[in-house]
Amino acid sequence: MAKLPGKRVAIRPSLKQGEEGRINNNWRRLFLDCLAESSNVTLSASKAGVSTSRAYKVRREEAEFAHEWLVALAEGYLHLEMEVVRRLREGDSKTADEGRFDFANAIRLLAAHRDNAARGAGEVRDVSAAEVRASIDRKIEGIRQRIARQKAAAEAKTA
C-alpha cells in the first residue's frame, strides 16, 4: 500500500547530514521543481533543505513521489538537451565564468541518461492534437511579434 503524500518518513539520524532544524513541509515540491530545472539530485535536495538520503528514501517508499521524480528528470533532461542545441546553433561556447562549454561531456552525459529520461517522458500526460496546435500557434505568434519588433527597431535606426 502506497504511503500518503506528505506523510513523515522516519530516517536514521546518520542520514540527516545537511539538514538544519525543522524541514519545510513543502520540501517535495521544492525538490521536484529544482530537479526539473537542474537534473541534479544533490543540488535539489540542498535547495529543498533535506539530505539526499532522505530524498532517495522517500522515493523508494512513496510511489507518487517516485513517479513525479521521473517526470521531473525527463523535464530536466529536455532542458539540458535544448541548452546544448541552443549553444551549438548560436556558437555559444563560453560558460558564465568565461570558461569553455564542454560539448563532448555534455553529449556523453545526455546519452548516459537518455533511457531514464525516456521512461520519465512516458509518464508525462498525453495532450490532444488541439492542445499541441494551440501551443505551436502561440509560439509562432511570439516569433512573429519578436521579428516585427526587431524590424521596427532596425527601421527606426535607419530613419
Protein model, in words:
The protein is an all-alpha fold. The protein has 2 domains: 13-121; 126-159. The chain has helices at 27-38, 41-48, 52-61, 63-90, 103-112, 114-123, 129-158. The longest helix is centred in the last third of the chain and has 30 residues, at 129-158.
Give the overall shape. Answer: extended
The multimeric state of the shown protein is: single chain
Order of helices and strands: HHHHHHH
CA-atom Rg in angstroms: 21 Å
Q: What's the domain count?
A: 2
Distance between the termini: 71 Å
Q: By helix and strand content, what is the structural category?
A: mainly alpha
Question: What is the strand tally?
Answer: 0
- Report the sheet-strand fraction: under 5%
Give unreliable regions as ranges: none
Identify the notable features of this structure and list them briefly:
mainly alpha, single chain, 0% strand, 159 residues
What is the fold's blueprint, element by element?
Elements: H1 27-38, H2 41-48, H3 52-61, H4 63-90, H5 103-112, H6 114-123, H7 129-158
Helix pairs in contact: 1-2, 1-4, 3-4, 4-5, 4-6
